[in-house]
Design a protein that fits this description.
Bound molecules: 2-deoxy-2-amino glucitol-6-phosphate
Number of strands: 26
Strand content: 15-25%
Distance between the termini: 10 Å
Shape: globular
CATH architecture of the largest domain: 4-Layer Sandwich
Number of domains: 3
Oligomer: single chain
CATH topology of the largest domain: Glutamine Phosphoribosylpyrophosphate, subunit 1, domain 1
Strand order of the largest sheet: 3-2-4-1-10-9-11-15
CATH class of the largest domain: Alpha Beta
Radius of gyration: 25 Å
Amino acid sequence: MCGIVGYKGNFINVKVILDTLKLLEYRGYDSAGLAFCSEGNLFVRKSKGKIDNLYEMVDSLQTDLVVAHTRWATHGIPNDINAHPHTSGPLALVHNGIIENYREIKERLKDYDFKSDTDSEVIVHLIHSFYKGNLFDAVLDAVKILKGAFAFVVIDNNTKDLVAVKMESPIVIGLLDSGFLISSDIPSIIKWTRKIISLENGDVFYVHSNEFKIYNFLEQKFVSRNVEIIEWDISVAEKSGYKHFMLKEINEQGKVIRDTLFGRIDEESLKVVLDDKVREFLDSLNIDNIIYIACGTSYHAGLIGSYYSNELAGINSTAFYASEYRYIEKKYFTSKNNTLYIFISQSGETADTLFVARELKQMGENIVTIPNVIGSSMYREFLSFPTRAGIEIGVAATKTFTAQLVNILLLNLYLAQKKGFDVSHVIQELLFIHEVVDGILENYEYIFDIAEKYVDYQHFMYLGRHLMYPVAMEGALKLKEISYIHAEAYAAGEMKHGPIALIDNKMPTLYVLPFNKMINKNISNIQEVKARRGKVLALVDKKSKEFVKDLVDDLLETKYVNEYLQPFVTVIPLQIFAYSVADFKGLNVDQPRNLAKSVTVE
Ligand code: AGP
């Protein structure tokens, strides 16, 4: 992961660079640093921990050339030395990605004194080894040798040149009135400029004096890239009175559902109205297989999608982790125009997901992506059907998950209607689901009291059946990632095949149990847990509550809705439960340890 920033232009206050870097903190936050040129010298300031530590170190310095970095450690622990930038002679470099052949390169650079344990440091020494006074030439020699994913910015204190390179990892160039602001994403620089160049793989962006040129080392020629004027707005990320971004984002879910649905259902005919390009594409296919590919929370949305495809659209469907599908041998794959691949990623930059999408695109497969970040790689490189959740700051995905569910459901309802299936009863309720969600969010404080009782447990079991199985997985993921409590999620029917051995009074079970055709099966499972002295916390609606209220220890409550809409209303109490447990433990809910918002490494 990591966030990188670079600047070359007339003088700028270094604090502007740090403010920009702070907007990339979601990409990693275990250490940070910057290097800047001032009065002929190259200064480096770096430190373990958050970017805030750097503000004091730079005061209000002005500079015309600077690189900065916020890190998510891959090679080498988070400490001051492993923090970027790394330097070699007059050069300073920041990197996002992984250099796969760094060991071989290190071997080759025996004369260099390596200070850090990072793979990134090899890049700057490698460039320096080719450097004869021209940074651009030296970078072109170096990129021929580098293997892996890399976006980096390197500056030269001798010539005051700057070079930015993109290979797999994201990087964009903001054009300022006088100068260039480079960053890992568009939202971080939109405050300073709306004129953006998104670099493509292989691009080497070179600024000398005030002139720039772009050379593509894959195509081996100079290229020109469009300057995009970014029209979309980002409301400056503020907590708006909430204690954490995560809680704010949980509370935004009614609005997010409404926004993502907007204009995509004809309320009179109850027909799904897809964006033109997506509709034309789906109409051109004769799909009999849908494969969802994603990671983490987005994978859970995809898994729910596979139930929708099988049951609502009548199309055979499965969901895969991108990191697994990536290594499925595809030599016998033949593109028959009958398989649709749906890639889901809120960031639109997840390395594993992007890799598979690019691979299948090259093979001529049918692809639709569902990104949340407009301008992300998945948005730009593929036919995309974006969600409209707005920027999500909390590292734990919440509102982007519900937005993904909306789009996945819409695609399936469209395919169902194309086949002549009557899904109007689902659509009718979908139109009002945001109101139901808002209703749930009017009264959730009681969950804080319940959460307090469970704070000291070390292990949790989450169970659910059918559509509630992926929801249980998502609830468990939320608990583990922000509260650091071990949480196993299982399809409830699988309990008896092994996990039941774990149950005792030290491992509570959270059962996702809205009323549906599974109710009696679920009750049997609960009895099996109780018989082994396990505590049960059940997530119920008013119908299922009647069945289990005397059987379980605690109740989380949601509203009763159509079974295909139950994921929207059951995930919310689970998000709040995880949030409350983490908050009671005094943890950093928005920036949990070891994680980053956008996972751009394999
Ligand atoms: C979610 O809470 C996680 N932080 C993580 O699992 C995330 O969903 C995963 O990394 C996929 O990210 P993406 O949606 O940006 O591709």
